[in-house]
Every structure is written in C-alpha cells, then in structure tokens.
Amino acid sequence: MLDHLMPLLSSPWLYIIIFAAVAIDGFIPVLPTEVAVIGLSALSATDSPNLVALAAAVVAGGIAGDRVSYLLGRKAGGRVTDGNLAMVKEKAERALMRYGAVVILVGRFLPYGRTSTALAAGAMSVPLGRFRLFTALASAAWAVYAIGLGLLGGATFADSPLLGAGSAMVLGVVLTGVFALREKWRGTAITPRLVTHRSVELDPSLG
Which domain holds residue 182? Predict the structure, then answer.
C-alpha cells in the first residue's frame, strides 16, 4: 500500500493540498487536517514527505485560513448565532475580553477554537497587526504539535511506517476528544452570554 502512496508523498502537489486543506479548515472546520498532518509526519520516516516543506505548508495555511475567519468576523460575526460554533464563539469573546489576544494561541488547540477565536477577534476589532502575530505563533505551535505526534508514532513503529502513522493519528484523535470533553465539562459551568465590542471595553492587551 505504501508503494502506491509514494508518488503522492513525493509530489510537490502534496504541500499545496495540505496548505489548502489547513486554510479551508480555518473557516469551514470540517476537514480532518490534524489527522492528515499527523499521518504524513509519521510517514516522513520513509524520506517523504519533506518535514520542512510540510511544516511550511501547515503554518502558511494556518495563517491564511485564520485571516479569512478574521475578515468574516469583521463583516458578519454577529450573524453566527446558532450551533456549537456560535456557543464557542461567545466563549471566545469572553476569553478575549479577559485574557487578551493570547487566547488566539490557546484556542488553536481546542475543538472549534481556531475558527471561533478568529471570528471573535474580527467581530471585536482586535488590531490586525496583533492578530497576525498571535495567529502566526498559534500556527507554528500547532504545526510543532501535530508533526511531533506524527514523528513519535513513526519512531515507535520504525519498521512499519503505516502502523506508525495509524497509531499517531489515533493518538491525535484521542487527544482531540479529551480536549472536547474538557471544554464541554467546563462549558456546563458557564452561563452563555454574548459579548460584543459595542457594549464593553476591550482588555488593553488587545490593542
């Protein structure tokens, strides 16, 4: 099976696909980009894909997707009023109010956190320069996390790259589930309340 994957793993198109997938996941959070990046990183033990190129694609895609979400938040953030994304966005707005732009970095590792914090930052008019800084840091940190999990799986099953990729992806899914359960548990103790930049003063660290 790995022999059939090698043409794609060694193709420059792989990095374009990963860039596009990570970018789209920033404003349409339905793609399993974390699983894909972890699996590809585990397969890097076969010398393909190139980890530096993969990391660059992941970071660039993260920055691009976050920028789109930020702009959507500026233009239509108030229209996100239903579903899980709306609930998480409200929590992100409260967190931005309390802790400042560092929430953008933390949110990158939480379910729906990436999209919701970027939308909230746009809706609350967080200065674009500060947003760019924190979204770049968040994208780089997430790339290290995902690629690191893949390398761990690849090293654990060095004689079987596919098994290493599979185990690393399962670990990534488990960790995401743990984060989701933790946030769900915390969410039950918080009364939802929509906060907007029109009715409150922002934390000084936002701008």
Answer: 2-206
